[in-house]
């Protein structure tokens, strides 16, 4: 459903049963190069997105671009939600690995595939058990001497 | 593409794709990337199948590059991510010493906050230069680069000489790897100074904006022909490089191009000038509306679309010269291809997540004040010291890297929290600049959909990926980073 305001604004009513507020927000944000975006409640289970074209921007096709952005954002949100635990696990693993891991391998043996299946099943459980990293897990706030235990020489001046 | 109810967990939670992002290279053509920084080219109509995933439909390429969720090589992908983001555990490696604000040039785009050659009270004392070196060596980064800038650093030769000698002694005493770099317009270069710099393994870089007329129009020098001096000393250092016979290594001199509005239609002349002088790299650096350039933006500036068109035509022309046997590469492309093709960090601080501010670099002003980066120092010169993080005389290293400005810049430039960036296919290779955002858009985080720097980088990435997708050009571009791969 679309209606145009006198100022050439485009108003889209979004069903919250179909799209989350975050999806609508990100889709509207993606168009903020050409329009100001205003999100408001629009009755039970609905959200109103008003796109007010910026000076010099052409309003033609704005509604269609918003609807396309909305569909893509919905897809992205599903991907994001489904992979949240996996991404956190991999990031934590990458940041905390003490030694370099073996080079990437495309071909997996049947045993490795079984191990991977088991590992994937454990991912979300494991990530919950992982504690947050310390305040400086990589040690970049420590001086060279503190980090590597090198004695400081007296300065020649 | 059918939309699905948001926040509803899939029953087949292990099927489908891992988190990926896509951008349109053409209406029917996508580049799709994943967190470890791998990419595939996919026709738009095949995106749903890729997202549905599953090993039955997956190609070897998708499997190998980590685009199938239930067949991920965790160790390999994590190692790839770690290699690409190795800088996160390093600490600041680049230390920029602004030895003076004085300059003998009056460049139309100057972003450094330079004053006249006779300005008073803007030289760094030698004692402060030593303190800056001491501070730099506190960084836990095993490889320290000290870059001497200005103004024109040769106007404060005593401090430059002292800092070079002292830094070499510090490196020798600590066993640290040290790289020294000088950025100079060469107007005050002499054989005696050149000999000292070469003896101390200082790499040399200058500005070259193209042929004489264009260079001199951009870089006014009251002492005479700036272009002539630049070419004279470039050739001098090239000859030293070419004739070296062991001993202290002599680096090939480098040149930096600043692209102004005047440069846009003259890309062929500019590239020809670099080729004529035997330079093997040209860095098509876009101008940013910071410092003095901001006040003259209408005269010298341009938008992202104009730069992208210039960049694409320039790349085409460089590739055509390559086919004729001219060994020339574009530096921006080389650094981004190093990430895209070789999955390695090239040390490009403008394109990191988080950005290099304080955690990758520090800038030391003539008075010992320390800034998150050189752009942050320029903001202070324009009247806003928000990016000042301390002073070499009074501050401790830990206080600098944990300062409010450092943390704010890291948070603002984390692409995971940037609402437009986290869904962008170029995220694994890109970075935002909080100083640019603050100066141009009024907030550290900025607004990426209307951010011209974002549009400019998207234009460059779009060009590079489009060319990589094209069989002939793809191979030619990949050749530019073949040596780096080895």
Describe the structure.
The complex is a heterodimer of chains A (157) and B (486). Chain A is α+β, with helices and mostly antiparallel strands. Chain A has a domain at 2-95: Alpha-Beta Plaits, CATH 3.30.70. Helices cover 44% and strands 15% of the residues of chain A. Chain A has four helices and four strands. Chain A has a four-stranded antiparallel sheet with strand order 1-2-4-3, with helices on one face. In chain A, helix 1 (21-29) packs across helix 2 (62-96). The radius of gyration of chain A is 25 Å and the shape is elongated. Mean pLDDT of chain A is 78; it is low at 100-106. Chain B is α/β, with parallel strands linked by helices and 486 residues long. In chain B, the strands form four sheets. Chain B has a nine-stranded mixed sheet with strand order 12-10-8-7-6-4-14-15-16, sandwiched between helices. Chain B has a three-stranded antiparallel sheet with strand order 1-2-3, covered by helices on one side. In chain B, a hairpin with a 2-residue loop joins strand 1 (20-26) and strand 2 (29-34). Chain B is globular, with a radius of gyration of 23 Å. The model of chain B is unreliable at 1-14 (pLDDT under 50). At the A-B interface, helix 1, helix 2, helix 3 and helix 4 of A face helix 2, helix 3, helix 4, helix 5 and helix 15 of B.
């Amino acid at each position: 459903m679309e209606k145009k305001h006198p100022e050439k604004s485009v108003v889209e009513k979004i069903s919250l049963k179909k799209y989350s507020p975050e999806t609508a927000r990100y889709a509207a944000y993606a168009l903020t190069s050409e329009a100001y975006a205003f999100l408001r409640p629009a009755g039970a289970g609905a959200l109103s997105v008003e796109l007010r074209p910026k000076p010099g921007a052409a309003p033609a096709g704005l509604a269609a671009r918003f609807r396309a952005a909305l569909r893509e954002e919905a897809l992205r949100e599903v991907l994001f939600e489904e992979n949240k635990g996996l991404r956190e696990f991999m990031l934590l693993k990458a940041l905390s690995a003490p030694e370099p891991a073996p080079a990437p391998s495309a071909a997996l043996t049947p045993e490795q595939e079984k191990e991977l299946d088991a590992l994937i099943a454990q991912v979300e459980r494991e990530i919950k058990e992982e504690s947050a990293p310390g305040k400086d897990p990589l040690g970049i706030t420590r001086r060279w001497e503190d980090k590597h235990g090198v004695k400081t020489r007296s300065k020649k001046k | 593409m059918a939309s699905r109810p948001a926040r509803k967990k899939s029953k087949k939670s292990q099927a489908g794709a891992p988190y990926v992002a896509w951008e349109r290279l053409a209406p029917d053509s996508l580049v799709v990337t994943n967190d470890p920084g791998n990419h595939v080219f996919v026709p738009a109509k095949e995106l749903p199948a890729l997202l549905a995933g599953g090993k039955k439909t997956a190609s070897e390429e998708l499997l190998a590059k980590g685009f199938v969720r239930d067949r991920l090589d965790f160790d390999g992908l994590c190692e790839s991510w770690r290699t690409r983001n190795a800088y996160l555990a390093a600490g600041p490696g680049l230390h920029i010493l602004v030895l003076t604000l004085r300059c003998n040039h009056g460049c139309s785009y100057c972003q450094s906050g330079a004053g006249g050659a006779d300005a008073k009270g803007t030289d760094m004392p030698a004692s402060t230069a030593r303190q800056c070196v001491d501070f730099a060596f506190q960084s836990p980064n095993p490889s320290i680069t000290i870059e001497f800038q200005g103004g024109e650093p040769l106007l404060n030769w005593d401090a430059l000489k002292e800092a070079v000698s002292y830094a070499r002694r510090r490196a020798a005493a600590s066993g640290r790897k040290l790289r020294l770099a000088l950025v100079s317009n060469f107007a005050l270069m002499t054989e005696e100074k050149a000999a000292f710099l070469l003896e101390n393994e200082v790499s040399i870089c200058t500005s070259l904006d193209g042929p004489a007329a264009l260079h001199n129009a951009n870089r006014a020098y009251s002492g005479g022909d700036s272009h002539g001096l630049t070419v004279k000393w470039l050739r001098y250092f090239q000859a030293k490089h070419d004739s070296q016979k062991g001993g202290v290594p002599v680096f090939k001199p480098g040149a930096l191009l600043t692209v102004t509005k005047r440069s846009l239609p003259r890309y062929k002349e500019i590239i020809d000038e670099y080729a004529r002088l035997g330079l093997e790299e040209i860095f098509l650096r876009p101008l940013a509306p910071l410092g003095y350039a901001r006040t003259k933006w209408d005269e010298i500036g341009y938008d992202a679309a104009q730069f992208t068109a210039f960049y694409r035509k320039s790349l085409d022309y460089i590739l055509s010269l390559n086919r004729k046997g001219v060994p020339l590469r574009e530096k921006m492309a080389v650094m981004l291809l190093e990430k895209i093709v070789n999955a390695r960090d090239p040390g490009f601080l403008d394109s990191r997540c988080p950005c290099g501010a304080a955690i990758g670099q520090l800038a030391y002003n003539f008075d010992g004040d320390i800034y998150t980066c050189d752009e942050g120092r320029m903001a202070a010169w324009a009247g806003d010291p928000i990016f000042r993080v301390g002073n070499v005389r009074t501050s401790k290293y830990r206080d600098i890297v944990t300062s409010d400005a450092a943390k704010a810049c890291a948070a603002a430039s984390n692409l995971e929290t940037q609402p437009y960036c986290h869904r962008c296919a170029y995220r694994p290779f890109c970075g935002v600049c909080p100083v640019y955002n603050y100066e141009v858009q009024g907030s550290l985080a900025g607004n990426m959909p209307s951010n011209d720097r974002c549009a400019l980088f998207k234009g460059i990435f779009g060009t590079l990926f489009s060319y990589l997708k094209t069989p002939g050009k793809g191979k030619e571009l990949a050749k530019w980073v073949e040596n780096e791969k080895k």
